[in-house]
Amino acid sequence: MNTVVFFQELEQLPQAAAFFKLDAFHHQTVPVKMHMGEPGNKYFSQPSLAKPMVQVLREAGATPFLTDTTAAYPGPRHTKEGYLAVAQRHGFTLQSVGCNVVIDDTGVPTTVEGRVFEVATQLHQAKAMVALSHVKGHIQTGMGGAIKNFGMGGVTKESKIALHHGSRPVYRKDMCTHCGVCAEACPFDAIKVKEESWSLAKGTCFGCGVCVNVCAQKALLYQDADLQFLLACSTKACVQGKTVLYLNEVKRIARGCDCDPGAGPVICPDVGYLLAMDPVAVDAASLDLVHKVKPDVFEKVSKISPWKQIKFGEEIGLGSSSYSLVEL
Ligand code: SF4
Ligand code: SF4
Question: Which of 19, 39, 148, 175 would bridge with 219, disulfide CB 3.0–4.6 Å?
């Protein structure tokens, strides 16, 4: 069973890390994967989270560096140079965190469950890695944590786009009763239903899968698969065969993702930090602890169950949701 260590103060990180064997990090160059913040977003994890982890890694004999990938959508994080400038503005510098910051824009094709994901080159090359993940709500996956951090954030722009497109709906006219339920449920107003017609504004559809889930007639199918399944696959492409330490920061739990400048408001009081070596266990434990404070808060806000990524992660062998919680 996985050990998940739960603690309240970052000063306790070395004590929490002592529960895990970090031999695999010795003499390794270790990417520390984290989102370094979209301009305008107020909730993303700060350099103060990275700094003590960098220290823990140095003490384990590793050479760490902070890393993330370029964003698929237009904006300052779309290019390496633009993202580096944003990271510096947000305080992610050699001086403040104690290691270099590398933004990756290239990938290596890796196949999982018959699908090809371009894993960021820096991640692909590593034998041992760390994920620093901010746990918050997400409009397409209910919650974003460790699985979302690698699943979307660990791959190239091209793979990010393919992930989103893969979970768009395909319409089966013969099955449709034109009830309009999908149009009412779509959070992005991308579907229009009239008496005899159904249409999708592809430019507006984010591939959240809500419409596919609510159609009782099974008139909507995924172009490929549920986004949470694809994210679990993509995460497996990033981490398989490697030793990975996962730190989830379950604080400033906003309604929306770190890439959303208008992600607020905060929807749940702070919970704390969780450390584990399994992405499924650390996300399952984060969800359990959030739900103790605010039952089903993510599903109530986004209408999407975040448990799907846990279930899919287990199904494809990414990890296990069974864990024992050690509280410091
Ligand atoms: S929910 Fe299904 S049956 Fe109803 S309009 Fe949408 S696609 Fe058609
Ligand atoms: S996948 Fe989501 S955004 Fe796209 S049409 Fe369906 S409900 Fe709307």
Answer: 175
